[in-house]
Amino acid sequence: MPFLVYLLALAVFAQGTSEFMLSGLLPGIAPDLGVSVGAAGLLTSGFALGMVVGAPTMAVLARRLPPRWTLSGFLLLFIAAHAVGACAGDFETLLVTRVVAALANAGFLAVTLSTVARAVPPSSRTRALAVILGGTTVALIAGVPAGALVGDAFGWRAALWIVAGLCFPALGGILVAAPAAAGPRAVASLREELSALRRPVLVRFILLAALANAATFCTFTYLAPMVTDGAGMPAAAIPAVLALFGAGACIGVLAAGRLGDRHWGALVRRVAPAALVGWVLLGAGLRSSVAVWTLVLPLGALSFCLGSVLVARTISTAESAPNLGGSFATAALNLGAVVGPIAGGAMLGIAGPSGPALTSAAFALVALLLGWTGGGGVRGGRGRGGPVDG
Q1: What is the helix (H) or strand (E) element at residue 42, kind and residue range?
Q2: CB 320 within 8 A of CB 197
Q3: CB 314 within 8 A of CB 209
């Protein structure tokens, strides 16, 4: 595995910490900036919306530029957005900085996924992408709970400053190790790359990835109020619950990396129904702290295993778009991260603390119906071959 993959994973860790840690900081941000917790949840949706818009836009702008300079430029913009956000005096300013940071993150992740997909052979692609997504899971295990602890002790602004500081070691490594040339495959025309979106199987994988991520972030964004208001647990338990979910996510990404190249179809067919059952059980049993402690780890594993496999399949299906394939996967995942928190916040107000988990179950059910009725894309997938068109 090229060392560059691990350097990029380090940067993804810093950015993932920023994206996800707000779920543990919402109770502090909301009163400080004079908004409700549900409204503060829009910070997560705003970030994800910036990712959705930014992934294809930034990938198009950067497609003919060397990865070394596009990656470092996006990372510098990400750092600057966090510095401004840490000084924000109102909710609107903070929301704008989150969108700007997301645009930078989107460009970085899209270029990263495309660069890694070109740097490794197809038989190792899911494993390499799992290493990149491993930066996200480490963020969930260590970065997000640490952010919650820092926010509780020193305030949410301190957490933003720390994330900005985490980016500098990755920035130095990228300036040294990232490719200084765009590469031979960057000459594909924009029209040729966009034509990949005409393939029904690619559209299906994009929709499945969006639905899977919507289910994940619908609940994850509101785990803090679910833990305190639903299960009646103390606020001190929030970092531990977030860490447990992150540990499950790590397990899921490792499983996807080990099995996803050869058995992705079987993995999706087994993991998706199990995730549906898990969301239903969490919503139904939320009043019990035992249910929370029992379910958050397997739900983290199931969610990120499914998401990792669908990311790899989206990129593999978009091989005719070597520069934009990563943006398709990034946009798919973050489209779900826009819709999920919005739906979860609405149901939090309507149905109470169990609302987000039950809404996650609804997203999972729609994904199952699409996967089983939409053609051979999911029902196929045996062996090492490419995606099966439906």
Answers
A1: helix 42-62
A2: no
A3: yes
Alpha helices in 285-382 (DSSP H): 289-317, 325-351, 355-373, 376-379
Per-residue pLDDT reduced to its tens digit, 24-55: 787 788 888 888 877 887 887 788 778 777 77
Q: CA-to-CA distance for 21 and 15, rounded, in angstroms?
A: 10
Q: What token pair was written down for 300?
A: 């983290």
Give 161's contacts (C-beta < 8 A, 6+ positions apart): 82, 83, 86
Contact assessment for residue 312 and residue 126, using Cβ atoms and an 8 Å cutoff? yes
- Residue for token digits 């059910």? 365
How long is the chain? Answer: 390
Sign (positive or negative) of CA dihedral 198, 307, 302, 147:
negative
pLDDT at 299 over 90: yes
What is the rounded distance in angstroms from the CA atom of residue 214 to the CA atom of residue 341? 8
Q: Which of 257, 1, 12 is nearest to 110 (CA)?
A: 12
Query: Cβ atoms within 10 A of the Cβ of 100, count?
Result: 20
CATH of domain 3-379: 1.20.1250.20
DSSP state of 122: G
* Amino acid sitting at position 206: I
What are the domain boundaries of the chain?
A: 3-379
Radius of gyration of the chain (CA): 19
Written as six digits, the tokens of 59 are: 């990938």
Nearest to 304 by CA among 145, 134, 148, 146: 134
pLDDT digits (tens, 9 = 90+) for 374-387: 554 555 544 443 33
Contact between 305 and 278 (Cβ < 8 Å): no
pLDDT at 140: 66
- Other beta carbons within 10 angstroms of residue 290's beta carbon come to 10
User: What whole-number distance in Å separates Cα of residue 67 and Cα of residue 47?
Assistant: 23
**How far is 60 from 47, CA to CA, in rounded Å?**
20
Sequence-separated (6 or more) residues with CB below 8 Å from residue 192? 320, 321
Give the Cβ contact number of residue 191 at 10 Å.
Answer: 7
Output the six-digit token pair for 354.
């169990």
User: Positive or negative, the Cα torsion across 86, 88, 92, 97?
Assistant: negative
**Angle of helix 91-119 versus helix 3-33 axis, rounded to 10:** 170
CA atoms of 42 and 189, how far apart (whole Å): 36
What pLDDT is recorded for position 133? Answer: 72
Nearest to 323 by CA among 196, 221, 204: 196
